[in-house]
Amino acid sequence: MPERRRKFERRIAFVAVMPLALSVSLFVAVDLARAAEKAAPAERNPPGDIPDTQVFIDFSSPAGFLLKVPEGWARSDQSSGSTFVDKLDGVIVSTEPENSAPTVEMVRSDYLARLASAERAVKVTSVEYAKLPAGRAVRVVYTSNSEPNDVTGKQVRLENERFLFFKDGKLVTVEFYAPKGADNADQWQLMSKSFRWN
Question: What does the chain look like in DSSP terms, one character per residue?
């Protein structure tokens, strides 16, 4: 299974258990090896820059939101969300029911533990509120290892940004990832600011 698809399926599995109050201890126990894994070294000249000439198109989700995504990236859909991938870069969107809006305190006390057990060698650098056109979101910035390449076993150190949007009992997570050191700040900002509720 390609490493980027495994990342998407882990993300969807993470979403599926998030609302369960007792999931923390169970989820952490699933794969302690992931959390204990050492960080892969960052590439000296990392691939993954989204070109300045990249065209973005509107993705309208049946879950009730709209987001600009890069045109031409490979798209995969599952019941809980969609992923858009080009080589080592990706955008993952997922939806789940939730009773209340996430807060920075809630994310730090609960969400991060599950994130660490779902991803590989996670190192969180910030959890903060982001003021966006769609409203306030929680922004989580972290680095992680990719899944090992099926042939070579090589892993890439990734940088990730997740935005948690909430409205009317619905939590939408928008995640961007790319090799650490790639210059995608402007493109990620464009996409996060484009998020709109339908």
Answer: --HHHHHHHHHHHHHHHTT-TTHHHHHHHH-HHHHHSPPPPPPSS---PPPTT--EEEEEETTTEEEEEETT-EEEEETTEEEEEETTEEEEEEEEE-SS---HHHIIIIIHHHHHHHSEEEEEEEEEEEEETTEEEEEEEEEEEPPPPTTT----EEEEEEEEEEETTEEEEEEEEEETT---HHHHHHHHHH-EE-
The neighbour count for residue 10, using CB atoms within 10 Å, is: 17
Secondary structure (DSSP) of 72-112? T-EEEEETTEEEEEETTEEEEEEEEE-SS---HHHIIIIIH
Stated pTM of the model:
0.84
Each residue's pLDDT tens digit, 61-85: 999 999 999 999 999 999 899 999 9
CB 64 within 8 A of CB 165: no
